[in-house]
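Memo to structure team: turn this sequence into structure tokens by end of day. - J.P.
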Amino acid sequence: MKENIYQPFEILFKELDHSPKDGHSHNFFELVYIIFGTGKQCINKSTFNYHAGHMFLITPEDCHSFHVLTTTKFCFIRFNEDYIKSSYANTDRASRTERVQKLAFILQNANHQPGCILRQPGDKALVKPMVESILREYVNRDLYNRELIEQLVNTLIIVVARNIAKILPEQVNQGTEERAVNILHYIHQHIFEPEKIRTELISKHFGVSEHYLGKYFKKQTGETLQQYVINYKLKMVENRLLHSEMRIGEIAAEMSFTDESHLNKLFKKYRGVSPTEFRKNQLVLE
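Reply from structure team:
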């Protein structure tokens, strides 16, 4: 069962010396900022070591949890698309529609991967005092504190959206048609169910012919459907190699490869090294 919020946005500050909920998902977006403490973020079966200054974006499609190693103070900022729409209520209709669509598009198409969402060093320095200001207003409950908090949250969302926009998959941009984005979402949703991402089933699901689907998908993404599925699977394999302790055989089974040998062969063909070599090389670089 997914967790809900019953207002456009809410803020929570929690200091915990134990792990909160087990893996769960939401019907809303959640920004999680680490004020202090260390531990692990678990998202979609991958893990990431967190520390102070990290910020994570959890989308409605993600299954996640946090494992606390040392006492951690979290800032949780939860919001839904209604909040994004209300944030531009005072702008003209055309501008409001464009901005809301842009923000919603970026947030919905965030890569559901482990790690801090703030990729720009300057943005990390920008976010820290904003979260501190939100905490101060939250605690003091001074005059106009609600309005000030909303303005700060709006700015945080824009900063996060800017970071996401720079790491969106090459296949996805604002010119991509809604149907193509829906097809990509369908593939992501069923990536562990190979029988559901065969061309004939995707074409049936979206009510188009297989011939049209192939041409349309290639035009919209620059890749064939098969190429996209392979590249997306290999990207998930990379995440498992970097952010989990899963054995190669376990990863092969999870990703529905015939066996470990099949995964090794395909990975080496597209990445130039075996999965074991890839993991070892990345550990050396770290």
